Each structure stands twice: as structure tokens, then as C-alpha cells.
């Protein structure tokens, strides 16, 4: 952890803006607990990735929430390249004062230097690849940059560190652990699949029971069963006989593959969700 923190801080010194990448389904649970301390006063944009998998209204409420906390926030879908233009605009906006001051001194604007920071699996590599595209050009090492750090050109206005800052997730809270596991941010071996499936069933039943009924051909009565019994019914329906571990894994994979609807797992703090409704 100390090494990850030190490496992230080293990279921070090289850039103008940090893109803090989180999973839009778990914006809080996929943040590193020490992120504020690590990033310090460096300009930062919080980017809720995988917005295609999250509940759009909740994503907007989360953005409102972060903005109410004076954190710049926006949503993207790095896999399909959606939202990247807004992200670029936001970066330019953040640097406009600085460049205006430089211009007043007769200094020409230069490329804005960016780095991506986040816990594993939030889409850092996907975003780097999308940002840079196929025709990426490596601009070579800069003075003071270790050999391992290279800059990738993003259009004419940006340079991106080719390796992201990787932070560790926080999962001493079992609920956060379940959310991280459901979204694939921590290894399945660290959790009990049946626990995860029961938690998921409860969430989907509360959010969108129809999708569950249709996917696993469940009746209304079956959906009223206690969760453990419902899991047994689904196990049979999937043809796994008594193997509810296999059925649990299938349920979790279905969630990850967006077969159980757009489900955001982190709840927006109450006072913020009302902001989005006004
Ligand atoms: P990391 O560098 O932060 O560890 O994450 P990485 O880019 O490797 O992405 C982790 C997984 O999340 C990948 O799926 C990737 O395709 C997927 N992903 C990244 N961004 C998005 C997004 O905006 N929307 C969706 N739906 N998925 C996204 P994978 O299953 O591990 O690999 P694969 O699908 O590329 O085979």
C-alpha cells in the first residue's frame, strides 16, 4: 500500500490534472479511502466509468452529490468511447485560468498533462486505449521523468501518462467487499459466491423484480419466497440440480454482463438525491 501510494504521488508531480476513475455502479465503494490525502490540491476530475451498466438517474444523482462537495464529476462509458469529449472539455476548463495567466506573460499554451488513477478493474486501461486510439504516438521521456513513464498524445491538446496510478480498494467493511466483488473489482476467491448471490437477489428483487422473473422464468409466488429458497428454485431452473454454488456464480456473472438491469449498488446520500430531482 505504501508503495502504491508513493508511486501514485510520484506520478502526480508530473501532471496538471488527475482523472480519478471509479465504477459508476459503486462510486463510493470503488474509491480509495486515502484518495483525498494522495491527490491533495492537484486539480482532479472524478469520472464515473461504466455508466452504461449503472442506473442513469442514480449516476446523475451521484454527479450532483460530488458537485455539491466541490468535486468536478462526470460520467463516461470508456468501452464505447462515450463522454470522452466532455471529459476533455472539463480538463480544458480546469486549466483555462492557468493558461490565461501564462498567455498574459507571453507563454504559449502547451498540452495539458493527465494521469488516470483508480482501483483495479474500474477501466483505467480501457480509458487510456480509448483516449489514445490506434494512432497513438509516444512523445518520449521528459526531463525528470523516469524511463518507465511515457507520455501518450491525446489529440493536440493533451498528454497522458501511459501507465495509470493503481490504488487499492477498501474492503474491511463486508458490504463494500460484496459490492466490489459483484462488480468484479476483487477476486471471487475472496468472497462466498452464495452470499454474493443472496445479496444480489435481494437488490434485484427490490429494484427490478420483472427482470429476475423473466431471466429465470420465476412466478410471482416464487419471488415471494425467502431468498435462500428462491436461490434453490433458480438453481433447479438453471439445470444445476443441487449445485447452488454454480447457480450463484451464474447469477453474479449475469449481473456483471448487464443481464439483470442497470443496477447501481451504492446509495446516494439522501440530501444529495433530492438535488437531482429539483
Ligand atoms: P483496469 O485497467 O482499471 O484494471 O480496468 P480495465 O480497463 O482492464 O477494465 C476492466 C473491465 O471493465 C474490462 O472487462 C473492460 O472491458 C471493462 N470496461 C471498462 N470500461 C468499461 C465501460 O465503460 N463499460 C463497460 N461495460 N465495461 C467496461 P473484462 O471483462 O475484464 O475484459 P474484456 O471485456 O475487455 O474482455
List key phrases describing it.
elongated; 46% helix; GTP-bd; alpha/beta; single chain; cytoplasm; seven-stranded mixed beta sheet; binds guanosine-5',3'-tetraphosphate; 278 residues; Rossmann fold; 2 domains
Could you explain the architecture of this structure?
- The model has no long low-confidence stretch (mean pLDDT 91).
- 46% of the residues lie in helices and 12% in strands.
- With 278 residues, the chain is an alpha/beta fold.
- The chain has 2 domains: 1-161, P-loop containing nucleotide triphosphate hydrolases (Rossmann fold); 192-257, no CATH class.
- The chain contains 12 helices and 7 strands.
- A hairpin with a 3-residue loop joins β5 and β6 (158-161).
- Bound molecules: guanosine-5',3'-tetraphosphate (G4P).
- Guanosine-5',3'-tetraphosphate binds next to α5.
- One of its GO terms (molecular function) is GTP binding.
- Belongs to the TRAFAC class YlqF/YawG GTPase family. MTG1 subfamily.
- This is Ribosome biogenesis GTPase A.
- It is found in: Cytoplasm.
Amino acid at each position: 500500500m505504501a508503495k502504491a501510494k508513493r508511486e501514485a504521488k510520484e506520478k502526480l508531480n508530473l501532471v496538471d490534472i488527475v482523472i480519478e476513475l471509479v465504477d459508476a455502479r459503486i462510486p463510493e465503494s470503488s474509491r480509495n479511502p486515502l484518495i483525498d490525502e494522495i491527490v491533495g490540491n492537484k486539480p482532479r476530475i472524478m469520472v464515473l466509468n461504466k455508466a452504461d451498466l449503472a442506473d442513469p438517474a442514480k449516476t446523475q444523482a451521484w454527479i450532483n452529490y460530488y458537485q455539491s462537495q466541490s468535486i468536478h464529476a462526470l460520467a463516461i462509458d470508456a468501452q464505447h468511447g462515450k463522454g470522452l469529449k466532455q471529459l476533455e472539455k472539463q480538463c480544458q476548463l480546469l486549466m483555462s485560468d492557468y493558461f490565461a495567466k501564462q498567455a498574459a506573460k507571453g507563454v504559449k499554451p502547451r498540452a495539458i498533462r493527465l494521469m488516470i488513477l483508480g482501483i483495479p478493474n474500474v477501466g483505467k486501461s480501457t480509458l487510456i486505449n480509448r483516449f489514445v486510439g490506434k494512432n497513438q504516438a509516444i512523445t518520449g521521456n521528459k526531463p525528470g521523468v523516469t524511463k518507465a513513464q511515457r507520455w501518450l498524445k491525446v489529440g493536440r491538446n493533451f498528454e497522458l501518462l501511459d501507465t495509470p496510478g493503481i490504488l487499492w480498494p477498501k474492503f474491511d467493511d463486508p458490504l463494500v467487499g460484496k459490492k466490489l466483488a459483484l462488480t468484479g473489482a476483487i477476486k471471487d476467491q475472496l468472497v462466498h459466491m452464495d452470499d454474493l448471490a443472496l445479496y444480489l437477489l435481494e437488490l434485484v428483487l427490490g429494484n427490478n423484480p420483472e427482470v429476475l422473473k423473466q431471466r429465470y422464468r420465476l412466478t410471482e409466488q416464487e419471488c415471494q419466497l425467502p431468498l435462500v429458497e428462491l436461490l434453490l428454485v433458480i438453481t433447479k431452473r438453471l439445470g444445476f440440480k443441487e449445485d447452488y454454488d454454480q447457480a450463484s456464480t451464474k447469477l453474479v456473472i449475469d449481473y456483471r454482463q448487464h443481464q439483470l438491469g442497470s443496477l447501481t449498488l451504492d446509495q446516494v446520500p439522501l440530501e444529495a438525491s433530492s438535488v437531482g430531482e429539483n
